[in-house]
Amino acid sequence: MTDFPATRTAALEKLQQFLPRAGADYAKLRNFDHGAGRHDNVSSLSPYIRHRLLTEAEVLQAVLGRHSPRAAEKFIAEVFWRTYWKGWLELRPSVWLEYRAGVTRAWDRVQAESGLRAAWEDACLGRTGIDCFDAWAQELVQTGYLHNHARMWFASIWVFTLRLPWELGADFFLRHLLDGDPASNTLGWRWVAGIQTKGKTYLARADNIARYTGQRFTTQGLAPSAPPLDSAPHPAPLPAPTGDVVAYDRPTALILHEDDLSPGFLFDRGLAPVATALVQASAGRSPLAVSDAVHRFTTGALADVQARWGDRLGPVTMIDNATDLRAWAEGTGADQIVTPHAPTGRMAEMLTGLAADQPLARVLRDFDARAWPHATHGFFRFKARIPDFLAASGLRAR
Ligand SMILES: Cc1cc2nc3c(=O)[nH]c(=O)nc-3n(C[C@H](O)[C@H](O)[C@H](O)COP(=O)(O)OP(=O)(O)OC[C@H]3O[C@@H](n4cnc5c(N)ncnc54)[C@H](O)[C@@H]3O)c2cc1C
């Protein structure tokens, strides 16, 4: 049975179970990777937060209801890493396009170079002979999740020991992670490879792996150094999105998509849709086949939102591709279509296919609108603003 039932109820239960450990315990123990089924020292909430079955604000408020801001500082900062990465990519969407082009280039090479193909297959199947790496490849495929430290070590070994194109590693993650996210994944891999923080790479070391995995591995043969990959300079940041203003009294259709499955904030503003499309973009994560587990989680999350909000949605249509979305939009008969803002990634691309001839209003959450404009420099400058972000969102210790 999966550890990640795709429901908000399961997410809330996981959050409740984790809350006592979100303070000092998390600060002390979060870097330990105890292996599949034993990730109790971290929240494992990422598949739910990524699809916003739980919002970042809800998680932060729950944690602040239990711990002081100081005790929960580490956990709060990790949640804001997500917000920072999303904002960073939102200001520089060309980095996503460049990543996608890099996957295509690397995939072309895999098809043309038999040695590369064999090495790539061995890595994806967990057959490299590097004990920890093979265990993580299998854990990822079997569970749809990896601990953060394992993601860092895995990416580092992929890039610097196996010397495989980083884009193929990011693609492998996206095809299997239930939380697979255009921003956190792309920028996480770039960070390990020394592309994101220019010149600063992450080197996986056998002693560090042994220590933080409870001596489960005695890894041999890792690269002794991690010279940064060549890369283009960062593009200059664009202005942050501001979101569209919506007149909710006009006949309105709703596109509810996998990037934001908590539509309550729209109903609070007066939205009463004449029809709703529930849209998933999981097939577009990769040019290769995306795992059944990812599709199942996303489909389940959409079904869950329908079960929770069905009486507010009007007639519902499930959609999983841009052509059907366009056809649905043309037939709604509504004056306008409203959707929660989809950040840079495949879902946003599907919506862009509509924008030319459909009156699409993208509603930005206040939480994102406040934070994203500040993702202009490194995380530490952004982090200094966390108390302001929390206060402006009314998130405080109880
Ligand atoms: C190479 C690489 C790829 C990654 N790919 C993804 C991805 O596709 N999707 C994804 O959600 N995260 C990704 N991460 C970030 C991080 O590994 C996961 O968010 C985290 O491991 C999820 O487990 P958790 O929910 O138990 O985290 P916890 O430690 O319990 O943290 C709570 C929440 O904070 C956020 N968070 C924590 N650490 C990070 C981080 N370093 N960056 C961004 N957000 C963070 C997540 O939403 C997480 O659910 C990646 C990291 C690396 C190094």
Automatic annotation (TrEMBL):
> Domain Cryptochrome/DNA photolyase FAD-binding, which positions?
75-207
Which controlled-vocabulary keywords does the entry list? FAD, Flavoprotein
Cofactor entry: FAD
Sorted alphabetically, which InterPro entries does this protein's record hold? Answer: Crypto/Photolyase_FAD-like_sf (IPR036134), Cryptochr/Photolyase_FAD-bd (IPR005101), Cryptochrome/DNA_photolyase_1 (IPR002081)
Gene3D superfamilies in UniProt: 1.25.40.80, DNA Cyclobutane Dipyrimidine Photolyase, subunit A, domain 3
Top-level taxon of origin: Bacteria
Q: What is this protein called?
A: FAD-binding domain-containing protein
Organism expressing this protein natively: Lacimonas salitolerans
